[in-house]
TrEMBL record:
The lineage of its organism: Eukaryota, Metazoa, Chordata, Craniata, Vertebrata. The gene is EFCAB10. This is EF-hand calcium binding domain 10. Transmembrane segments: none annotated. GO terms for molecular function: calcium ion binding. Residues 62-97 form the EF-hand domain. InterPro entries: DD_EFCAB10, EF-hand-dom_pair, EF_EFCAB10_C, EF_hand_dom, EFC10. It comes from the Eukaryota. SUPFAM superfamilies: EF-hand (SSF47473). CDD domains: DD_EFCAB10. It holds the Pfam family EF_EFCAB10_C. It comes from Rhinopithecus bieti.
């Protein structure tokens, strides 16, 4: 019983402070830029702290041109759409989706506009 309660408290703590999303974002940034890890993480966390304290938006490593390029790589046939599976995997790769239950397949195809909107929205949430 004690272990179950501690596990529940730990899960709630991680969710409340969005630790999984933060760690996923930090990992994605490391893999994207491949800097010296320790110094880069310290710098990134300090910039996140300053952004939170000042209310200034944090500059993310993905801009619209990167998002469009990623979408175009997945849309190899040039139809202007990607599948839900591709969409979900892209968000996971970017560290913007950590749980399978986080996204629900509504049966609709994903357009570039929908993809950009969702990536930008999730980056702002982090």
């Amino acid at each position: 019983m004690e272990t179950s309660n501690r596990e529940l408290q730990a899960a709630e703590y991680l969710e409340r402070h969005r630790i999984k999303e933060l760690v996923s974002y930090l990992t994605s940034a490391l893999l994207f830029f491949r800097p010296k890890p320790r110094e880069y993480l310290i710098s990134l966390l300090e910039r996140l702290r300053i952004a939170k304290v000042t209310g200034v938006a944090f500059p993310f490593f993905m801009d619209n041109s990167n998002i469009v390029a990623m979408f175009e790589m997945m849309d190899s046939s040039g139809r202007g759409t990607i599948s839900f599976v591709q969409y979900k995997e892209a968000l996971k790769t970017l560290g913007l989706c950590t749980e399978d239950g986080d996204l629900k397949d509504d049966g609709h195809i994903i357009t570039l506009d929908k993809f950009k909107e969702e990536v930008n929205k999730r980056m702002k949430e982090i």
